[in-house]
Amino acid sequence: MQVVQEVGALVERKWREENYREDSFPENCPCGIVRSGLAKRLDPWDIVRWVHNAETLPAQQDVDGRFGNPPITLFSGSRFYIDVYFWLDGTTSIHQHAFSGAFQVLLGSSIHSLYGFKEERVINEHFSMGQLTLKESSC
């Protein structure tokens, strides 16, 4: 995926110029990806064809497939990576992401909901009971 390599290299270079300061990353990475129009330049089917035809892939960040089915790393930089996630069914459960990052939907739709939890009873340090409430939802 040449276009992803170019954008990834650009973000890497700009962040390196900032001495990899964490507070400069949000400006350099997500905004750089959005400004490049990367989402409009990628076709999910081109990604599938690329995976099937590539002699080598970048170092894959989620080999076990814990997030997405499948997750595919398109660019692997020294301190960040660009992944694409395919979901083959439209349902999911309440979950917490095990990573920090930005995302953009290439095809289909996404819903983001924020829930609150009011603890009423502690069973043990790993389990409690209470009320779950939907605080906000957006598409």
Describe the structure.
There is one protein chain. This protein is of the alpha+beta class and 139 residues long. It has one domain (2-107). Helices cover 29% and strands 26% of the residues. It contains 5 helices and 4 strands. The chain has helices spanning 2-17, 25-28, 30-35, 38-41, 44-53; strands at residues 71-76, 81-85, 112-124, 127-138. The strands form 2 sheets. It has a two-stranded antiparallel sheet with strand order 1-2. A hairpin with a 4-residue loop joins β1 and β2 (81-85). The longest helix has 16 residues, at 2-17. The chain is globular.
Task: Give a short synopsis of this structure.
The protein has 139 residues and is of the alpha+beta class.
Order of SSEs: HHHHHEEEE
Rg from Cα? 18 Å
Describe the biggest sheet?
2 strands, antiparallel
- Classification by helices and strands: alpha+beta
Biggest sheet strand order reads 1-2
Low-confidence spans:
none
The overall pLDDT, averaged over residues, is 86
Number of domains: 1
Strand content: 25-35%
| Overall 3D shape | globular
Helix coverage percent: 25-40%
Query: Span from first to last CA?
Result: 28 Å
**Extended strand count:** 4
Count of individual helical segments = 5
Q: How is the topology of this model organized?
A:
Layout: H1 2-17, H2 25-28, H3 30-35, H4 38-41, H5 44-53, E1 71-76, E2 81-85, E3 112-124, E4 127-138
Antiparallel strand pairs: 1-2, 3-4
What key phrases describe this protein's structure?
139 residues, globular, two-stranded antiparallel ribbon, single chain, 5 helices, 29% helix, 4 strands
